[in-house]
Amino acid sequence: MHVSSGGVRGAKKSGRKPGFDADDVVAAALAEGIDTFTMSAVADRIGVVTGAIYRLFPSRDDLVVACLDTAAATLRLPGRDDDWASVLQLWADECWRVCEDFPGLSRLLYALPTAFTRIQHVLAAYSAAIERSGRSTAQAMFALDFLGDTVIASHMGIVAMRVVDADGATGWDRVRDALADGALMQPDDSWAERGTVDVKVGFIIKGLERDWPAL
């Protein structure tokens, strides 16, 4: 076998793979889906072996937490002079936006009991803004929880309406086909979009304008 100064003839060139860091891993996991990614799929997306991912994140749970923190970092905070109704509207808008921006998040938030612990600083900022309007901490947290649950649960249902099956039919299509003409509930475009969510949010805020629970 002839060995030249460049190495074994015909052998693959050796060398370091392109570098990657924790941010690259998080981005790959988010691209795979925050609720469904696997460590091997993340590694494949980056172009490294799975073991390399574990050197940065010892477990999948650690990577999930990093993904949640990345999503939480995008949440807008209320202004100091915002009234409580504007604060709650912003919270509802941000809950919707973050679920849209990070596919699978709404599902993960219900599947992972500790998910909300990653936004304690965000909840504290929103609660403080509502308390400046004369509400108690318990009342502020009730309103934030009520609206957050409403928006996130609604988003999860809307995602199911958008999913396309192997035949090219969406969840909305399947529901429409399953309901007979004249059924009490008839699907419309709002079932796959935000329209009904805004109605629910407005209803809750209007209700709080009339009465807050004594907490």
From TrEMBL:
<keyword id="KW-0238">DNA-binding</keyword>
<dbReference type="InterPro" id="IPR001647">
    <property type="entry name" value="HTH_TetR"/>
</dbReference>
<dbReference type="InterPro" id="IPR009057">
    <property type="entry name" value="Homeodomain-like_sf"/>
</dbReference>
<feature type="domain" description="HTH tetR-type">
    <location>
        <begin position="32"/>
        <end position="67"/>
    </location>
</feature>
<dbReference type="Pfam" id="PF00440">
    <property type="entry name" value="TetR_N"/>
</dbReference>
<protein>
    <recommendedName>
        <fullName>HTH tetR-type domain-containing protein</fullName>
    </recommendedName>
</protein>
<dbReference type="GO" id="GO:0003677">
    <property type="term" value="F:DNA binding"/>
</dbReference>
<dbReference type="InterPro" id="IPR036271">
    <property type="entry name" value="Tet_transcr_reg_TetR-rel_C_sf"/>
</dbReference>
